[in-house]
Specification:
Length: 236
């Protein structure tokens, strides 16, 4: 049974690494039909449901997995993410803190805590939390992205720009970072029009790199058209 589990589990991992979560889901389910041998199989199952927007189902997968693997920091952390998405922020925070009790050195969980603070509107607390993560891991791209978003929401565009620039030093071909940097320049451009051409360049870079959903490409093109037509940048 364990060998049969491994056959489907490894296939699920292969699909997950390729970003094909639709295929990950049935393979993870088949693996678990042979037994709850590995907590990661429950995590893969949950990721498949999350990719489909089925967060209630993902939560059920994770809760079931925790019955067999109650100290899995991956399952606890992902369950916290589900609760955060479902706006059960107190429950999410408690789960993230449970992870840190089990593994105090798992500092990336602080990034998730920052997300809870940000959703609550505790922006200064979120910024402090993301900054603390980056002191421990200056190459953690997700923390840079979240820090930039939090700084923008606090109308601190210059600091957000610096955060995204530092992130791009680590991952220069990351399309999302270029888009977010474009947003930061655009935000700054509302009061300082000279920043708008810089926003335009970042959105164009995003379009060259982006391989994902079409709606994000279309939104970037609309922003580019807006900037080009804007009298602010003198680019009509």
């Amino acid at each position: 049974r364990h060998l049969q589990f491994d056959t489907h589990y490894l296939q699920a991992r292969r699909y997950e690494k390729g970003g094909d979560f639709r295929a990950t889901l049935p393979e993870a389910r088949k693996a678990l039909d042979y037994g709850p041998f590995d907590a990661q199989a429950f995590l893969l199952l949950a990721k498949g449901h999350q990719a489909a927007g089925q967060f209630q189902e993902a939560r059920a997968d994770l809760l079931k997995g925790l019955r067999y693997h109650p100290h899995s920091i991956q399952l606890l952390g992902d369950l916290g993410n589900c609760y955060a998405f479902l706006d059960s922020l107190d429950r999410a925070e408690q789960l993230f803190r449970n992870v840190l009790e089990i593994f105090p050195g798992y500092y990336r969980m602080y990034n998730n805590l920052g997300g809870v603070y940000q959703k609550r509107g505790e922006i200064d607390k979120a910024i402090e939390t993301y900054a603390a993560v980056l002191k421990r891991d200056p190459k953690y791209i997700d923390a840079y992205s979240n820090l930039g978003l939090a700084l923008l929401s606090a109308n601190r565009a210059d600091e957000a720009i610096q955060a995204y620039r530092r992130a791009l030093e680590v991952a220069p071909e990351d399309a999302v970072l270029h888009h977010n940097l474009g947003d930061a320049y655009y935000h700054k451009g509302q009061s300082e029009p000279a920043a708008l051409p810089l926003a335009l360049a970042e959105y164009e870079r995003f379009l060259k790199l982006w391989k994902g959903a079409r709606q994000y490409r279309e939104a970037a093109r609309e922003r580019i058209l807006e900037i080009r037509k804007s009298s602010f940048g003198g680019m009509e």
